[in-house]
Write a structure and sequence with these properties.
This is Vitellogenin domain-containing protein. Residues 30-220 form the Vitellogenin domain. Pfam families: Vitellogenin_N. The chain is an alpha+beta fold. 15% of the residues lie in helices and 37% in strands. The chain has helices spanning 105-109, 111-117, 141-152, 269-276, 288-303; strands at residues 2-11, 31-42, 53-69, 72-89, 121-126, 129-135, 161-167, 170-178, 182-193, 213-221, 224-232, 250-252. It has a 12-stranded antiparallel sheet, with helices on one face. A hairpin with a 3-residue loop joins strand 8 and strand 9 (182-193). Helix 4 runs antiparallel to helix 5. The longest helix has 16 residues, at 288-303.
Length: 319
């Protein structure tokens, strides 16, 4: 269960206007300071004495206008800076069980990763929709996804109606209901389409389908976001510059990336097949181990390189 909360601390100026058909606009020469937090809860089995487990990441977020298209006030680049990053347990825990207690963020993330997270980046915002991010080369996928999450907090439509949006869940159908000083966004999670293939998408099983949605509530002040609170069952996945050196930025899309890990002890496709072959004999196909083994085999085939595929042997079972 993923909870997102964006809490407004202060705005140095309140003269921010909004487009009648687009999204919120940020005034030039103004700095908006927010407090951002995200929680990841991993629920234990019911009746567990330990309760829920998870962690919370909180930080300060500064947002200012870097550029605006002279011919379209709703086409803008925003400079976003994350700072004062803290990681703590998401639920109250005894000191002896709290692994985050008295542990500096620098030690948890690492010095280089924390520095990468706190480097400013640019968000391309057009008509209230995030079109892309300008980040740095060779950033870790996890760091870039955290920046995408912060950038997603800026995505907002100020008029009622249905539209398609891209966020951490993929490309989804979204319903906006706009009021005087608040906007409610309802996302139909079952409509979300992602580039990732496999067994992570909503699908019918035995003719049964389900619908799920997530609700985000915005409160506005002078046409710009004051607070943003999230509730629902969406799957997981929110200045004064001083030039020290020049470094090119790399534009990335707004779809989250899957964190890729390299397994050093995983068997090759051929080694796995040799160990699991007996489970695929006809007399064993009705067993649960055969089903689990087949799914694992599919995943290994997808990840296998050309060199990892057997050249002379053919993966077959006896008829």
């Amino acid at each position: 269960m993923l909870k997102l909360a964006l809490i407004f601390l202060c705005a140095l100026s309140s003269s921010v206007s909004a487009s009648a058909k687009g999204g919120p606009r940020l005034g030039g020469g103004q700095l908006h300071k927010y407090r951002y937090s995200t929680e990841v809860l991993l629920d234990r089995a019911r009746r567990s004495a330990g309760g829920s487990a998870g962690y919370r990441i909180s930080s300060a977020v500064d947002i200012s206008l870097a550029w605006r298209n002279p011919s379209s006030r709703d086409h803008q680049l925003l400079r976003v800076t994350i700072s004062d990053v803290k990681i703590e347990s998401a639920t109250p825990r005894p000191d002896k069980d709290n692994i985050f207690l008295d542990t500096p963020t620098q030690r948890i993330l690492g010095t280089a990763n924390l520095a990468a997270l706190e480097r400013p980046f640019l968000v391309h915002l057009k008509l209230g929709k995030v079109k892309g991010l300008y980040s740095y080369q060779n950033e870790l996928t996890a760091i870039r996804n955290l920046k995408r999450g912060v950038a997603g907090l800026l995505q907002l439509q100020l008029t009622s109606g249905k539209t398609q949006e891209v966020d951490a869940s993929g490309r989804c159908m979204v319903q906006y209901t706009a009021g005087t000083d608040h906007v409610t966004r309802v996302k139909a999670v079952d409509t979300c389409k992602t580039l990732e293939t496999g067994f992570s998408t909503h699908s019918q099983v035995l003719g049964v389908s389900g619908k799920s949605s997530s609700v985000t509530e915005f409160t506005l002040e002078d046409g710009f976001v004051k607070t943003r609170r999230f509730r629902g069952d969406a799957r997981p996945v929110r200045q004064h510059p001083q030039l020290c050196r020049r470094q090119s930025r790399v534009q990335t899309n707004f779809d989250t990336e899957k964190v890729k890990t390299k397994c050093r002890t995983c068997p090759t496709l051929w080694e796995y097949w040799q160990g699991m072959r007996k489970q695929f004999e006809p007399e064993n196909l009705s067993k649960a181990d055969a089903s689990r083994g087949f799914l694992s085999l599919i995943h290994i085939i997808r990840k296998a390189t050309k060199e990892g595929h057997p050249q002379k042997a053919v993966l077959v079972t006896s008829a």
